[in-house]
Amino acid sequence: MKAAVLHEFKKALVLEDVPRPLLEANEVLIQVEACGLCHSDLHVVDGDWPQFLSITKMPLIPGHEIAGRIVEKGSDVRELQVGDRVGVPWIYWTCGECEFCHEGNENLCARQKITGVMVDGGFAEFVKAPASHAVKIPDALSAVEAAPLFCAGVTVYRALKQARISAGQRLAIFGIGGLGHLAVQIGRELGAEIAAIDVADEKLRLAERLGAANCLNAASTNVAKALRAKGGVHVALVSSAARAAYDTAFACVRATGTLLAVGLPAENVCFPPILMAAKEVRIQASAVGTRADLREVLALAGEGRIRCHVTAHPLSDVNLVIDRLRQGQVSGRVVLCFA
Ligand SMILES: [Zn+2]
Ligand SMILES: [Zn+2]
Predict the structure, then answer these.
(1) What's the CATH code, domain 156-285?
(2) CA 109–ligand 2 middle distance (angstroms)
(3) Distance of alpha carbon 81 from alpha carbon 208, whole angstroms
(4) pTM surpassing 0.85?
(5) How far is the CA of 23 from the centre of ligand 2 (A)?
(6) What percent of the chain has pLDDT over 70?
(7) pLDDT digits (tens, 9 = 90+) for 67-79
(8) What does the alpha-carbon distance between residue 96 and residue 98 come to, in Å, rounded to a whole number?
(9) Is 31 in contact with 82 (CB distance < 8 Å)?
(10) Contacts of 288 (CB under 8 A, 6+ apart)
C-alpha cells in the first residue's frame, strides 16, 4: 500500500510502498478515505515534544484524524462489519481498567496508545485499529467532513462541554484555525454569544459567516479593552498555539470566568496570581476526548448543525501541506484524500 512515512524527525515524509498491516483477532482493517492534518502532526514529525520522543514509533506513518471503510475484520470482532464506515481518533486504545477509564475520562488513560505516534496512523491507504475503538460515522457525513472531527472536533467539543458554557454566556475564541472555526459553531449551538479573535482577516470573515457576533483582529485592535468594555467573557477558549493569545485571553476573562487551554504553545504560559485571585479565574485544560464525546460531536455534524471547512489534497501533497500549516497559511482544515 502507499504511505507517507517518517524516517527521521524534522525530515520530509517519504512516499513509499509498505506492506498492509496484519490483523489481530480483535482488530479491523480500514481502507482510509480521508485523513486530516493536525498541528500535532507537525510537532510529532519535528520531534518538538520531549515527552513524545521516546514513545514515537520509527519509522512512523503519522495521521490521527482517520475516516474510512472496514474491508476486513479479525475473527473476534462482533460489533462491526465489513463495509461499515468508521474513524480512528488520536486515542487509539485505552485500557478500560485504570481509575481514569473507570471515571469516564478514558482520554486520560495511563496506558493509552496514540494513533500516528505510538502506532501507525492514517497517511496511508490502509490502517488497522482495535474494533472497540473504531467509531462509526453517520451516513450523512462524507469521509472528508468527518475526518477532522476525530481530533479537532472532539477536542473543542469536550473543552466547551467541560467548561459548562450555557446559553446567553459570552465566549471568546482565540485562533480561528481548524479547532477555532469548529469552536465557533459548537459555541453557537450551545447558545453562547461569540467573539472571534485572530490576526488574519480571512479567518475572521469565516468566523463571522459561522455566527460569531464580534470579530476582532488582534493585530490592529486592543482585544482586552474591547471585550472588557462589554463586561469580559465567561469563557475564553485559546485554540491558538501563540503564547500572546494566552496573555490576551486571560485579560478578557470576567470574574468567576474560565480560561480554557486547548492550543499548545511550546513555551510556558504565566498568569499573575494576584489577578487570578482577585477575579477567581479558573484555568482549565482539556485533552482530545472520549469515545462518548466523539459520538456526540459526530451526531451534531450528522444533523448538519456544525460543519468542518475542509480543503482536500492527495496524499502526494503531504509535505507541501505540512509546510503551509507550519507557516499558518491554512484556513479551516486540510484533509488528505484517497481516490
Ligand atoms: Zn490532532
Ligand atoms: Zn485506562
Answers:
(1) 3.40.50.720
(2) 4
(3) 41
(4) yes
(5) 23
(6) 100
(7) 999 999 999 999 9
(8) 6
(9) no
(10) 89, 90, 91, 107, 151, 154, 155, 158
